[in-house]
Amino acid sequence: MTHRLTAQNGAPISDDQNSLTAGARGPVALQDWHLIEKLAHFNRERIPERVVHAKGSGAYGTFTVTNDLSQYTIADHFQQVGKQTEVVVRFSTVGGEAGSADAERDPRGFAVRFYTKNGNHDVVGNNTPVFFLRDGIKFPDFIHTQKRNPATNLKDPQAMWDFWSLNPEALHQVTILMSDRGIPASYRHMNGYGSHTFSMWNNNGERFWVKFHFKTQQGIQNLSNEQADKLKGIDPDHAQRDLYGSIQDGDSPRWTLYLQIMPELDAEKYDINPFDLTKVWPHKDYPLIEAGVLELNRNAENYFNEIEQAAFAPSNLVPGVGASPDKMLQARLFAYADAQRYRIGANYNQLPVNCPHASQANHYQRAGAFAGTACPYHGDSKESGVNYGPNTQGGPEQSAQYAEPPLRLSGDLDRYDRFAEENFAQAGDLYRLMDESQQQALADTIAATLSQVTVEVQQRMLAQFAEADAGYAERVQQAIAKRS
Description:
alpha+beta, Catalase HpII,  Chain A, domain 1, ten-stranded antiparallel sheet, 12 helices, 10 strands, globular, peroxidase, heme
């Protein structure tokens, strides 16, 4: 009896012999996550705190389908109304260290793992539908500005605003971060988003572009600057305490999952680049389609083993859900799994929280840290003596029926200027959606740190605010003047 060949997350592999290339003679695509996983694991076969999202909380629960999406995807966890799939979710702040306060003004990580019968599917997003960047090549630079200054070891407003002033694509996310939604009151009272554009495909081989939206059923609640400052001193772990306590008391938090779905060919004619992470898709063009309900109802028994060692990665994809040309996503497909290999070890997916609970992992990766760790969900499964494929020794075999449809590409291989994209319209739209008190609170929050930087940086930022909305710039300028 032969077993199907899978990746470490248990997802079946359709082709283990050929890399994903742009044309028969073209270059290899970075999004070939199976190739990257094989090479990165091989590099570590011979025998620290997360760089970002270090402070976090998490719990287990279920996802229940309320709307069969089989017309869009072959992914089993999005089909058959009433079907339940086990999940684990981790929430986090982004920039702070493991001992930092939960009430910081910072995006919140919102990572969901579906333990499906075809492997683990991770949606690794934030509580915002957009991000500061559209190209992963800038991610290390951005995070350096959010961390401590290498000389003073203090947080650095000059670096933060200097970077943003030179990268106007960040303005949309900056406006969200500095708004009233910049400090969620708890993890239960915020939305979650996959943020990136992903793909789905159905049994007919039709591809759709997709965005994930987890809408809180508890309602949105946020903290003011004054409330957050007090809470950081009174209880720096308030969000962890709130999540654990609510589940312990039987008050299970819930989110409704909605999808925005775009037919593949629409992307070629849509006026917004649908793969730009700094943009949202207007709901009037692609309305929300309900998919199901996410409920958290079980706390971890050991926080370190089950939450701290939880290793989420956008490359944990399953048949029916794939990547897109989103440049930030393309970079994260490699960076997140590689960070886990560095942080935990080459076989991190064999730890109980990371192994595929509902499917058996069969692959040819051997040795390295945690080698021999048995996934408790599948008993004492024995490896065959063969560690290469293909073979005639009864090793696992690829499953061609799970192949993603080919993606049509065009254009020259080049480094395209990310500054060519439009940066200000959606930030201006968001500003105009706010009432006057919200606009003033936004300006005051921005001025609190922007007033501490050089005049040159202030002027560059004011020019960006003016591009979004003249009133936006005027309010911020007045708020800075009050602090002078």
